[in-house]
Amino acid sequence: MSDSLTDREIALRALSGVTRDNKTGCLISSKLDRKGRATVRYQAHGHTKRELAHRAIYRVLYRPLAANEELRRTCRDTRCVEPAHFALSTV
Ligand SMILES: [Zn+2]
C-alpha cells in the first residue's frame, strides 16, 4: 500500500492550472519556485517532493532523462510546460 502518485498523476498535476499564451504558444504554469521555474510538488513515500515540471512531463510522455541529458525549452521560458517546446540536449 502506497500513498505515492504515479508518474502520470504527477504529470497531470504539473499540467493543471496552466494558461496558454496565444502569442508564444507556451503553456504557462502558475506553480513556480523562487527562481521562477515551473515545478510540481507531490508526496512520495511519506515525503514531499518537488520536481521541475517539464522534466516530470517529459518522463511520462517519453522516458526518464539520463544523467547527462538536459531538457531545455526552445521558448526559453522557465514557466513553460508545453511539450512541443521541449528540447533535449546532451551535456
Ligand atoms: Zn514555451
Descriptive account of the structure:
With 91 residues, this protein is an alpha+beta fold. It has a single domain, classed as Homing Intron 3 (I-Ppo) Encoded Endonuclease, Chain A, CATH 3.90.75. The protein has 2 helices and 6 strands; from the N terminus they run H-E-E-E-E-H-E-E. It has helices at 7-14, 53-61, and strands spanning 19-20, 27-28, 39-44, 47-52, 69-73, 86-90. The strands form 3 sheets. It has a two-stranded antiparallel sheet. Helix 1 (7-14) crosses helix 2 (53-61). The model has no long low-confidence stretch (mean pLDDT 94). Residues 24, 26, 73, 75, 77, 80, 82, 85 line the site of zinc ion (ZN).
**Shape-level CATH architecture:** Alpha-Beta Complex
Determine the strand fraction and express it as a percent band.
25-35%
CATH topology: Homing Intron 3 (I-Ppo) Encoded Endonuclease, Chain A
Summarize the main sheet.
2 strands, antiparallel
Question: How does the overall form come out from the CA principal axes?
Answer: globular
Helical stretch tally: 2
Global Rg:
13 Å
Highest-level CATH class: Alpha Beta
Going by helix content, strand content and strand pairing, the class is: alpha+beta
Number of domains: 1
Order of helices and strands: HEEEEHEE
Q: Going across the major beta sheet, what is the strand order? A: 1-2
Bound compounds? zinc ion
Average predicted confidence as pLDDT: 94
The stretches of 5 or more residues where confidence is low (pLDDT under 50) are none
Provide keyphrases for this structure:
single chain, 91 residues, alpha+beta, Homing Intron 3 (I-Ppo) Encoded Endonuclease, Chain A, two-stranded antiparallel ribbon, two-stranded antiparallel sheet, 2 helices, binds zinc ion
